[in-house]
Specification:
Strand content: 15-25%
Strand order of the largest sheet: 2-1-3-4-7-8-11
Structural class: alpha/beta
Oligomer: single chain
Shape: globular
Largest sheet: 7 strands, parallel
Order of helices and strands: HEHEHHEHEEEHEHEHHEEEH
Radius of gyration: 18 Å
Distance between the termini: 53 Å
Number of strands: 11
Number of helices: 10
Length: 285
């Protein structure tokens, strides 16, 4: 017998796979900052790998094999992972020159993804649970990150202990690129919804992950793949994510939204997995 917990919609989601993204992108995944006290949840990394492998190919960076927690200080460990990520980007560019490279970071791994994107030009960055705050207060962006040119999507949660939506939007104002911000209701900093909340809303974690994943793909299609018109499930008229240019040289994805519940996801996913509905007017820059 399998040890995997039963998922009532797992088979439905597995059968209703999304189309590949154009040019079969490569996703480099950073799972977190290596420490000896808190390890990134392995199941969360596995869930994202499974989803993104459906639309491209995921190349995970094993932060603990690179940084050796307990043998290095945290800043030294972070630098080791950043250099490994930089080398991986260059390697993939040399061997897969025509494939887009997108950096994924989960929680504190988002910090590493942004640092690598500031060193090596990539097609895009997705920060899954970006930690805008630390024990010392609000994190400041390095000057190198402020100047980098990769479209970036921030995904945060209302119950995250290390992030606040207003701080994220202040960070976005500093960036000279197209950005988006998706706020997911009822989840923690790893984008996990509590068992009690899932029971109340009548959803599973896989449904929440799938909805977030659909929004990410919509962002990618409307930014780095905007000049391509694929016959994809993501390019659906009801998809809310749209890029809107602002005056001047800065443009961004104007799709900040709050998703307080996912109670409508069950019927929505049964019809077509097109992502979550807007329930708040997007912010205007």
């Amino acid at each position: 017998m399998s040890d995997r917990p039963w998922d009532p919609v797992g088979q439905l989601l597995a059968q209703n796979k999304p189309d590949k993204l154009p040019n079969n992108p490569l996703f480099i995944l950073f799972t977190g900052v290596p420490t000896t006290t808190r390890l990134p949840p392995i199941k969360r990394a596995a869930a994202w790998i499974q989803l993104f492998n459906q639309v491209g190919k995921v190349v995970p960076i094993n932060v603990h094999s690179v940084a050796h927690p307990g043998m290095m200080e945290v800043p030294e460990s972070m630098q080791a992972v950043i250099m490994t990520g930089k080398a991986k980007v260059r390697e993939l560019k040399a061997h897969c020159a025509n494939r887009p490279i997108i950096l994924l970071g989960t929680n504190t791994g988002s910090l590493l993804a942004l640092q690598v994107a500031a060193i090596e030009t990539v097609s895009g960055v997705v920060c899954l649970g970006y930690p805008s705050q630390s024990v010392e207060g609000v994190r400041d962006l390095d000057d190198s990150i402020v100047e980098f040119k990769s479209p970036t999507l921030f995904v945060t949660a209302t119950h995250a202990q290390n992030s606040h939506p207003d701080v994220i939007d202040q960070l976005r104002e500093q960036l000279k690129i197209e950005t988006g911000h998706l706020i997911v209701g009822g989840c923690d900093e790893w984008l996990r919804m509590s068992k009690d909340k899932r029971k109340i809303e009548g959803v599973t974690q896989s449904m929440v992950d799938r909805a977030i994943f659909e929004e990410i793909c919509s962002f990618l299609l409307n930014t780095i793949f905007s000049d391509i018109n694929p016959s994809s499930d993501f390019a659906h008229p009801s998809t809310p994510s749209k890029v809107q240019s602002k005056s001047g040289s800065k443009s961004r994805l104007d799709s900040s939204k709050v998703v307080p519940t996912v109670s409508s996801m069950h019927s929505q996913l049964l019809k077509h997995p097109q992502g979550l509905k807007d329930v708040q007017n997007p912010k205007r820059g």
